[in-house]
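Saturday, quiet lab. Running sequence design on the structure tokens for the scaffold JK sent over.
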């Protein structure tokens, strides 16, 4: 993958650790792509050429030097998705506005249960009125920013998982 990418570009990548493995395992048992388990959104490239992204993570939404993601053989992006410069700027703006948002542990648990075929009634409803939950996970944070910018994105709202973004990218779902 070559840098810098445009603001608003989604990076689906793979991270180490047992929790990351569980996310990939959950995707696998649902028959979804399972090589990636994390999502970050490109914000900007600095004067030194470093690409910076914003991501949701257990410590809360924050900045990430995307160099490792861009150099990983596991990383894919939606760079082919038509997004205007204005839309990319809006996505980056919404991601920046969400900096510091707490990690949504309830969604992680609900996603894991959904992967096993168990649905928690009502947990997705917090986004039904267009309001963001005060907490988010990486993939739903990206979906929320895309929705606020009016750019097509994977369905699922608060329940959007990394495999949903991977599927979106691999199938070029924005074309349908």
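Result came back. Writing it out in full:
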């Amino acid at each position: 993958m070559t840098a810098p990418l445009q603001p608003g570009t989604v990076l689906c990548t793979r991270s180490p650790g047992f929790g990351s493995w569980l996310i990939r395992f959950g995707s696998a048992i649902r028959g979804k792509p399972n090589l990636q388990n994390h999502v970050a959104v490109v914000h900007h490239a600095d004067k030194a050429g470093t690409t910076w992204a914003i991501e949701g993570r257990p410590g809360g939404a924050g900045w990430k030097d995307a160099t490792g993601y861009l150099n990983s053989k596991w990383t894919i992006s939606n760079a082919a998705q038509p997004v205007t410069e204005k839309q990319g700027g809006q996505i980056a703006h919404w991601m920046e506005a969400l900096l510091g948002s707490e990690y949504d542990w309830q969604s992680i648990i609900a996603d894991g249960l959904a992967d096993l075929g168990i649905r928690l009634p009502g947990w997705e409803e917090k986004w039904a009125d267009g309001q963001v939950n005060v907490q988010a996970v990486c993939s739903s944070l990206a979906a929320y920013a895309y929705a606020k910018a009016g750019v097509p994105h994977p369905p699922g709202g608060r329940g959007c998982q990394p495999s949903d973004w991977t599927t979106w990218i691999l199938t070029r779902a924005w074309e349908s």
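Notes for JK: Residues 85-97 form the longest helix (13 residues). Helices lie at 18-29, 67-70, 85-97, 105-115, 138-148, 162-170. Ask whether to fix the surface positions before the next round.
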